[in-house]
Design goal:
- The chain has 192 residues and is of the alpha+beta class.
- The protein has a domain at 56-189.
- Helix content is 25%, strand content 23%.
- It contains five helices and nine strands, in the order H-E-E-H-H-H-E-E-H-E-E-E-E-E.
- The chain has helices at residues 2-18, 83-87, 89-92, 96-100, 136-152; strands at 56-64, 70-78, 113-119, 122-127, 158-163, 166-167, 170-171, 177-178, 180-181.
- Strands 3, 4, 5, 6 and 9 form a five-stranded mixed β-sheet that branches. Strands 1-2 form a two-stranded antiparallel sheet. The protein has a two-stranded antiparallel ribbon with strand order 7-8.
- The longest helix is centred in the first third of the chain and has 17 residues, at 2-18.
- The chain is elongated.
Length: 192
């Protein structure tokens, strides 16, 4: 008898709770009163501060078009942007809408940008070893993606790449090996 009461109580409780939900079942958005949003999440400042604001800016990174030329695409980053933050977007590849227009990348998604700074117009970039696993032609295109992204951030003299803290030199199309890769070295890979 006690078992039957417990089972009946469980059934009644389940039936009563089945009508409760925290998620709206409406197929259209529901307007929420701004007074109902907790923790000041709609304020113009970071929650729990009176002054700190997050500002966003756009920066160009370089991806690859159907003709295997590097082209600028825009990403939104926090302000002020630094080179490491901007280069982080290259291994993430193109967005789905960019992919639909034929935009790709030569940089493998597993590649990690460990360090990136600019000194005297030269970007010093340290990446993981995945860069060496790309075939030579693709490697030049991948390096061009990093080069022109860094140039857009102020590395007017070019880039020097290291792989896990070991200096890297790129073999250009003419067979020359360079450790300081300048915009002139890979200008033929940039869309005009």
């Amino acid at each position: 008898m006690i078992r039957l009461r417990r089972l009946a109580l469980l059934f009644v409780s389940a039936a009563a709770l089945s009508g409760c939900t925290l998620v709206s079942t409406s197929s259209s958005p529901t307007l929420v009163n701004s007074n109902d949003v907790p923790l000041g999440l709609l304020n113009g400042t970071i929650p729990f501060t009176d002054f700190a604001r997050v500002l966003f800016v756009t920066r160009d990174i370089y991806m690859v078009d159907a003709a295997q030329l590097v082209i600028p695409v825009t990403r939104i980053v926090t302000s002020p942007p630094n080179l490491l933050e901007v280069l982080h977007y290259i291994p993430l590849g193109p967005t789905s809408s960019e992919q639909r227009t034929g935009v790709t990348t030569q940089v493998p998604p597993k590649l990690v940008v460990n360090l990136a700074t600019i000194h005297d117009g030269v970007a010093l970039i340290d990446v993981s070893s995945e860069l060496t696993q790309i075939p030579p032609v693709g490697r030049r295109i991948a390096v061009a993606q990093f080069l022109f992204t860094a140039v857009a951030m102020g590395a007017t003299q070019g880039i020097e790449i290291s792989i896990d803290q070991t200096p890297f030199s790129l073999t250009l199309a003419n067979g020359t090996r360079v450790s300081l890769i300048t915009p002139a070295d890979l200008a033929y890979l940039k869309y005009r």
